[in-house]
Amino acid sequence: MNDLLDEFLLEARELVAAATANLLALEQKPNDRESLDGAFRAFHTLKGAAGIIDFTAMARALHAAEDVLSELRKGSGAITPELISSCLGCVDQIMEWLDYMTSHGQPPADAGARADEVVRQFSWASAARRGIPEPPPPASVEGAEELSGAAHALLQEQIALLSDVTAEDAPARIASAVTVAVNVLRGTGRHAAAREMEHLLVALQNAADRTAVVSAIENTLRRPHDGTDEGVAAPSPAQDTAPRTLRVDVERIEALVKLAGEISVVKNALGHAVKLAQDSADKSLAGFLADQHTTFERLADELQQSVLQLRVVPMRQSFQRFPRLVRDLAETLGKPIRFLVEGAETEADKTVVENLGEPLLHVLRNAVDHGIEPAARRAAAGKVETGTIRLRARREGEHVIVEVEDDGGGIDIRRVRETAADRGVMASEAVQALSDEDAVSLIFAPGFSTATVVTGLSGRGVGMDAVRRAVERLGGRVGVESRFGKGTCVRFILPFSVIMTRVITVETAGQVFGIPLESVIETVRVPTDRVTPIGAARAFVLRDRTVPLLDLAEILGQRSAPPARDELNVVVAAIGGEVCGLAVERLGERMEVMLKPRTGLLSVMPGISGTSLLGDGRVFLVLALDELLR
Amino acid sequence: MTFKILVVDDSRLARMAVAKALNAVQPDWTRVEASNADEAVALAKETTLDVALVDFNMPGRDGLQLAAELRQMNPTMPVAVVSANHQEEVLRRAREVGATFLMKPLTQEALGTFLASAVARLTGKA
Q: For residues A508 and A510, what is the distance between their CA atoms, to the nearest angstrom?
C-alpha cells in the first residue's frame, strides 16, 4: 500500500500547487475560463486521489469546493474574493492533512470534523447556487458508523429521489442513488451489500430500471447487518509502469556530482602522469597515455556537464508560493495589489532556485508593505488604485536575472542619505557626494537598517542587508533602481550554474586559504633536516625526485613563519606541469565550497581565484596557484 | 485468453490504482498506459488494443471525446469512461459513443464486472 500512499502524497502536492495557482489567477481574471477549468480539474483530481486511498473526509471537503467551481463553470454565480478565500481555505486544510500523512502515514483522527468545517464554509455558496437536481456527494458518509439513523435517512432519501424520475434523467439519477447507497453501506461496514449494489449498477448500466434499484435499497434497509463482513480484500502489489520523467532522490544526484568532481581530480593527476612518462625513456607509453588522457578528459568534462544539468530546475519551484503570500499580505494590509509572475520556467541551478526564496520573500514583503502606497494615496497622486508588483526571471548568458518591480511610491533618496549619515554608514559629506543611483544602493549597506527602526520610515530597507548577503552567498549581486513616485525595481543577478570547487584549506601567517584540490597531488610532512638549500631556494626529495620547496607565506608577501618545528607541512602541487611543494603552517580539511568570483579590490590582485565561506562564516581566499607562481 | 487493455488517466496515482485492481482480476492481461488523449491515440495507432479504460476528466480532450475516437478507430472495442461525478450529461454522452460508464474510485468489483462483459463481447459469447 505504501507505493500508492507515496504517489498520493506526491501527486496531491502537485495538485494543491496547481489549484492554488489557478485560484489566484482566477481572482485576478474572473473571466478566465482556462483558470476556472484548471482549478476545477485540480480539485476534481485531488478528490479522485483521496478516493483511491480511501481518505473519505478529504474527498468530502474537496467535493464541496468542486461543487462550487462546477456551478461557476455552468455560469451561475460570480467569482468573489470570499469564494476564492473559501477555496484557498480548503487547500490549506488539504495541505495540513498531507503534512500530517507525510509524518504519520495516515490521516489524523479529527479529519472528519475538519472536513465538516470546510463543507460548512462552502454551504452558503452552494446553497445559493443549487437550483438544479444534483447528485449528493458520493463520499458523504465519513464517520457513518455512529450515524445509523442518518444512514437510514440517506437511503430513504434515495428511494424518494427515484420516485419521480423521468425517462430522460433516469440513468443519472439511478446511478447517483446507487452510488450514495453503496457509500452508505461501505461507511457502515456492510461491504457485501455494497458490492451487490455495485454489481446492480453495472448490470443496469444502460437500462433505466429504477424499480430494481428501489427494491435493492429497500432490501438493505430491511436486512439487519450481520457483522460477518470480511472487509476489503488486500490489494496485490502492482507492477509499476515507466513514467515520462524520473524522480530521483537528491542525495543520489549529489553523489553523482561529487563523483564527477573526483573524476576531474583524477583527470588532472593523469595529466601529470603523462608528463612524467614523456620525461622517461619509453616514448610509446607516453603517446598511449597522452591519447588516453585526452579521451578521459573529454569524457570527464561531458560527465560533469550532464551532471550539472541534472541539478537545473525551473524558478517556478521557488516562485509558486509567492502569489498566495502576496495576496494574503495585501489583504492584511488592505491594499489592492495585482501580482504578476513572468518567466517562472526560467531555469537555474537547484541551489540557486532553492535559496532564492528567502531573499525574494523579503523583497516582495517590502514591495507590498512599503512600496505600494495605500489606495487613497495612489488615487490622490493620480495613479490607478490597484498597485502592481511584477516578479520576473530571465536568462542572460551565464546569468539569471530575477527582478521585483513595483509601481509604488519609490524610494525617497533624501531620506536614504539622511538615514545613512545618521547611522554612520558613511560620513555625511561622502553620502552627499554620491550620485542618486549610488545613494539608493545604500539601503543594502550593513547597518543601514534594522527591522525595528525602519518600519517607521517612509521608505523601505527592512533587512536589505540580509537580502544582499543571501544573494552574494549564491555568487550573485543585487541592485536597485528607483524613481520617486513611480516605483522601485530590485534586481538579483545570479549565476546560472553553481560551480562547486573542492579545496583543501591551509593556514599560514594566521590566515586561512583554500587551495583547489585539482592542482593538489598530495600532502606530506617533511622533516626539516631533509630540506636542502639549492642556491637561494630550497628543495626536498620525494620518492627519488627533487621537489622545489616554497613557503606560502613568503609567496603571499607575508612574514615567513618562524622555523619552529622539526617537521614541515607541505602541499605537493602540480602547477603548469611542474611539481612543487608549498610549506604551510597547518593543513586544514578538504571541503566542497561555492566559489564566489573575486570582485572589487580583489579583482586586480593576481593569484586569487575567488573567495568562499568557512563553516563558521569567515571569509577565506581561494588561491590560483598557477597565477601566484608565474 | 488474454487481452491488451489501454488505461488512460492524467493521474499516475489513478493509473497505479487501476493496475492493482487489474492485477487482481485479470493478472494475465497486458496493460499499456497513457496520460492524455494524444498519447492514447498514438498508442492505439501503433498497437492493437482490445479494451480501453478512459478517465473522463483530463486536460486537453476529455475522456468522452477520446472514447469516441477510439471507438471510431475500432468500433468493436469495449470502452469504459471512468468519472467521479455522475452527471447525466456524461452518462448520456457515454451511451451515445457506446461506452460503459464506471464510477471513480474504480473498485476491483466494478472493474471485474466490466472486464467480464468485455471478454464476453470480444469472444462472441455475449
A: 5
Adjacent-strand bridge partners of A570:
A524, A583
Tell me the pLDDT tens digit for each residue of A128-147. Answer: 544 433 344 444 344 334 44
pLDDT at A56 over 60: yes
Chain B contact present for A233, CB below 8 A: yes
- On the CB side of A51, CA atoms within 13 Å amount to 27
Q: Which of B19, B84, B92 sits opposite A48 (nearest CB)?
A: B84
Cell numbers standing for residue A78: 460570480
- Of A185, A178, A187, the C-alpha closest to A220 is A185
Of B10, B17, B117, the CB nearest to A4: B17
Is the distance from CB of A489 to CB of A597 less than 8 angstroms? no
Rounded distance between C-alpha atoms, residue A238 and residue B21, angstroms: 8
Q: What is the mean pLDDT of residues A561-584?
A: 81
d(CA A457, CA A451): 10
Cβ of A202 and B110 within 8 Å? yes
| pTM of the shown model | 0.52
DSSP letters of A35-62? HHHHHHHHHHHHHHHHHHTT-HHHHHHH
CB B16 to CB A49 under 8 A? no
Pairing of strands B79-83, B51-55: parallel
pLDDT digits (tens, 9 = 90+) for B53-105: 999 988 889 999 999 999 999 999 999 999 887 778 888 889 999 999 998 88
Residue A234 in this model has a pLDDT that exceeds 50: no
Cell of A44: 476534481
pLDDT of residue B102: 92
Q: Is B116 on the interface with A (CB under 8 A)?
A: no
- Taking an 8 Å cut-off on Cβ atoms, the answer to whether B14 and A52 are in contact is yes
pLDDT in tens, B21-59: 999 999 999 999 999 999 999 999 998 999 999 999 888
Q: Do the chains contact at A49 and B107, CB–CB below 8 Å?
A: no
**Closest Cβ–Cβ partner in A51, A172, A244 for B105:** A51
Q: Determine the Cα–Cα distance for residues A199 and A124; give it in Å rounded to an integer.
A: 36
Reported ipTM: the value is 0.83
Residue A407 has pLDDT above 90, yes or no: yes
Closest CA to A448 of A490, A427, A412, A419: A419
Q: Which residue of B has its CA nearest to A191?
A: B109
In chain B, whose CA is at the least distance from the CA of A12? B13
Q: Smallest Cβ distance to A48: which of B14, B19, B109?
A: B14
Task: Tell me how close the Cα of B69 comes to any Cα of chain A, in angstroms.
Answer: 21
